[in-house]
Input
Amino acid sequence: MKRTIQIDDKLQKLGITKKYNGYYLLKHAVELALEDDLRLQSVIKEIYTPVAEKYKCNPCCVERNIRTVLYKAWKSNRKELNKIARYELTKEPSVSEMISILVADIQRTEALFILP
Output
């Protein structure tokens, strides 16, 4: 539940709202990657396909809809995207890079609360 709130918060800060199908697809993709970050090594098979099955579409649809919200974040909130990435993005990140950026940011946040 806590991770769901963190993901929602990150997406909202990027200007990605629930009016986009890509919002839900990206959220679920990040949840899957947080369960096992090795899934990031095989994004189509390990992330896009399970997300597509859940939302009754195909993996290409998943990638396209996430790319749409990523484009919105890139155009409207590049500064926040760079802040979350913790490095200067010189071009729009790929979908898998975006998932990885969000996963790393949430994992860093969680690590801060675990450290004494």
